[in-house]
Specification:
single chain, about 160 residues, alpha+beta, Chemotaxis protein chec
């Protein structure tokens, strides 16, 4: 897996949303009480797993930008369970585009998303429980809610 840098992440998210997005690498992960979303990726052809964990508020803002929802409406829809279908679609698009930053010589494919750590199974759960190497970024979207995004991989 390629290790994405803050500049590439900022550029990709700015291009996707049409809004200025800034990303800063954080030296280490700090526990948070905010709701999280987990994106699960497969690295092909090896079938290694990559796990992305992000604040729901951040992905709701980014997904809202993609689908044309104002941040306040995206934040309201993020509080519903299950997630509003329009917002879910936008978040899936964001997670799918982020797969391009995770690919190197091998292809990385977005496989699934879950909004509760209790539903992580198999390799995704193992990566999270093993305290695998991680890269954490603080992401800020101009005029929208920002948050934290962490990428875990067995081979970083």
């Amino acid at each position: 897996m390629i290790s994405p840098n803050a500049q590439a992440l900022s550029k990709t998210l700015t291009k996707l949303t049409g809004l200025p997005v800034s990303c800063v690498r954080k030296p280490r992960f700090l526990p948070s009480k905010s709701s999280r979303v987990y994106g699960i990726y497969n690295q092909l052809p090896a079938h290694d797993t990559i796990l992305l964990r992000a604040d729901l508020s951040l992905l709701a803002s980014l997904g809202g930008c993609v689908t044309g929802l104002p941040d306040s409406l995206a934040a309201d829809r993020a509080k519903t369970s299950p997630l509003d279908e329009t917002l879910r679609s936008g978040i899936h698009e964001v997670l799918n585009v982020l797969s391009t930053l995770l690919s190197g010589p091998e292809r990385v494919v977005f496989r699934s998303m879950c909004t509760d750590v209790a539903y992580l199974t198999g390799p995704a759960r193992s990566i999270l429980n093993s305290h695998a190497p991680a890269q954490t970024f603080e992401v800020t979207v101009a005029g929208y809610t920002g948050g934290e995004l962490t990428i875990f991989s067995e081979d970083q």
